[in-house]
Amino acid sequence: MTTQPHPATAWSRWLPWVFGSAILVGVVIVAIHFTETKDLVRLVQTAKPRWIVLATVLQMLTYLAQGEVFRAPVRVTGHRIGAALVYKLSLVKLFMDQALPSAGISSTVFVAKSLQRNGIPRSVVAASMVLNLASYHIAYVVCLLAALAITTATGHSNWIVL
Q1: Is 160 helix (H, G, I), strand (E, B) or coil?
Q2: Which of these, 139, 100, 130, lies nearest to 112 by C-alpha position?
């Protein structure tokens, strides 16, 4: 005798797919509705491929750097985790940070759970998440100071900005 899955169980398996599909459709509709087609065509026509390649490589390196931030406490404590996994986690974190308005909390929880599922102790995962958060804010401060220095040096800042 076979048992049929409970309707709530079957629905709960499909709910994330339905929710994800609805979000995807919404993003596509908004993108089509609000995209400035003429500007996009002009941008593509005037783009220089070498700069696009350079930007793509630099963007990929940011994911690698964030993955290494995840790995640093793991390595220091003698545990091992693959570079490919932390690179993928970095990509997922970026997507979740952009797609879900949760101030990075949901993506941090996802990365932490993934690291724990791969055998990293909870204390090491916590250190990794703290290091990730601290390095994120330090990078913003450094960029802000660099921007202020550049605008001041070129004469584009005033006392209010400073």
Answers
A1: coil
A2: 130
Calpha distance 28→31 (Å, rounded): 5
DSSP annotation of 6: P
pTM across the whole model: 0.59
Q: Are 109 and 97 in contact (CB under 8 A)?
A: no
Cα separation, 134 vs 114, whole angstroms: 20
Identify the DSSP state of 127: H
Q: Which long-range contacts (CB under 8 A, 24 or more apart) does 19-23 make?
A: 23/99
pLDDT digits (tens, 9 = 90+) for 36-57: 666 777 777 888 888 888 988 9
| Residue-range domain boundaries for the chain | 41-153
